[in-house]
Amino acid sequence: MVLLAEHTTTTARDALEDVEVAVVPTGSVEQHGPALPLGTDFMAAEALAATCRDRDDAVVLPTIPVGVSEHHRQFHGTLWTDPETFEDYVSDVLGSMAHHGVRKAVVVNGHGGNTDALQRAARSLRQEETAFAAPWNWWDSLDGLTEELFGDAGIGHADQMEASMMLRIADHLVRESAMAEAEAGASDAWGEGVHGANVGFDTIDFSDSGAVGEPTLATREAGDRLFQTAEEELAALVDWLGEQPFEDLLPADHR
Ligand SMILES: [Zn+2]
């Protein structure tokens, strides 16, 4: 069906009868260094979620763009909400869909900082038997593809992987002339490890440019591969979830 927000209430009533799975994009508006747009994370999630728009068994919800990003606050333009607010907001959106009879959902997430809150939301919704939501980080679906594309180069944030994805999704928003600057001030990896402790709490603690890894390695071709692989995995996940009887997804009573 088309995007939920493009329906009227009367056309939604009919279309939702066939829908098994709600697809909800979540992301962030946060610094991605000097080369990538602030909206990188929600744009990636939105573009991948939109690949489900022609399915009759799924409905794509509006994007939840602002996420858990306070650790980027020292960089201009970053917006954030606290984890509990984000968790409650996502839960309420999924609860609304459950009210309309769509009790299974995939949260297409574009921002690692949202992960813990999404897991908590999904766990609570399942425990309450309101809905079953599967949080899905697009980069976790790639199964070795980043190593194949970029070798052992560090991966993290505003890196070669995200930059490639943005070249695929919205290349007009990528400032390729700033890639070298992004890389010059990038950290090798996400965080700062000292004797096994991560003492990099804010991005500014370990990255001067806000980027990580080697964004100059980004290519449009790599972005095509990343997008295609993630799209296929998402489609397979929605297929799987659509086939599961809701009751089978609820927590077991006893062993
Ligand atoms: Zn990002």
Question: How would you describe the overall organization of this protein?
Answer:
By secondary structure, the protein is of the alpha/beta class. It has one domain: Creatininase (Rossmann fold). 39% of the residues lie in helices and 10% in strands. The chain has a 4-stranded parallel β-sheet, with helices on both faces. Strands 5-6 form a two-stranded antiparallel ribbon. Helix 3 (83-99) crosses helix 4 (115-127). The longest helix has 24 residues, at 220-243. It is globular.
Supply the key terms.
255 residues, alpha/beta, 4-stranded parallel sheet, two-stranded antiparallel sheet, 10% strand, binds zinc ion
Extended strand count = 6
User: What portion of the residues fall into strands of 2 or more residues?
Assistant: 5-15%
The hetero molecules present are: zinc ion
Uncertain residue segments: none
Number of helices: 9
Helix and strand topology:
Blueprint: H1 9-15, E1 21-26, H2 40-50, E2 58-60, H3 83-99, E3 104-109, H4 115-127, E4 132-137, H5 145-150, H6 160-170, H7 179-184, E5 193-194, E6 197-198, H8 220-243, H9 246-249
Parallel strand pairs: 1-2, 1-3, 3-4
Antiparallel strand pairs: 5-6
Helix pairs in contact: 2-6, 3-4, 6-8
The protein binds zinc ion.
Residues 32, 40-41, 111, 157, 162 line the site of zinc ion.
Short recap of the structure:
With 255 residues, this protein is an alpha/beta fold. Helix content is 39%, strand content 10%. The protein is built from nine helices and six strands.
